[in-house]
Amino acid sequence: MAQKEASVAELTKNFEDSTAVLLTEYRGLTVAQLKELRNSIRQDAEYAVVKNTLTKIAANNAGITSLDDDLKGPSAIAFVHGDPVTVAKGLRAFAKANPLLVIKGGYFDGAPLSADEVEKLADLESREVLLAKLAGAMKASLFGAAYMFNAPLSQAARAVDALREKQESAA
Questions:
Q1: Which tens digits make up the pLDDT trace of 1-56?
Q2: Which of 102, 103, 10, 84 is nearest to 44 (CA)?
Q3: Which residues of 41-72 are buried (b: 16+ CB within 10 A; e: fewer)?
Q4: Nearest C-alpha neighbor of 48 from the set 27, 89, 79
Q5: Is 8 within 8 Å of 58 (Cβ atoms)?
Q6: Which of 10, 20, 43, 129 has its CA 20 to 30 A from that of 90?
Q7: Are 29 and 91 in contact (CB under 8 A)?
Q8: DSSP strands (E only) in 51-121
């Protein structure tokens, strides 16, 4: 009993500390395949095989009830602590290579995710790519602004030079 309570408490903490939770079914995968999957997403998530009843209690404790219906069969959860997009991409890539892995759904940013929505999340660009694009756009804007500020100055300088030359030639 005490062990179950400890498991529920640990799972509840995992739910509360995660930026996203992605639920999978792993029926038929080998221990080696599960280890490969864990290693592929380790940087951004902790992948854990879970007991459905305890997980349901822990999720409910954390205020998440949307996973209740999907917690059937052999379940494993990716508790995301990094970039959810990267983890969704990793799970999708692994599922393509190992069709026995089924992505059932998830929970992200206070909202439940269907399997299709996890798929859409995987289609997004990673945080790093988006930040790089944003930085590139900002850099281009800064260069444009710098050019815009410098252009009137150089035009003014040419106009002053032309006036000075005109006065010198008139004098």
A1: 788 888 888 888 888 888 899 999 988 888 999 999 999 999 999 998 898 889 89
A2: 84
A3: beebbebeebeeebbbbbbeebebebbeebbe
A4: 79
A5: yes
A6: 10
A7: no
A8: 75-80, 102-108, 111-114
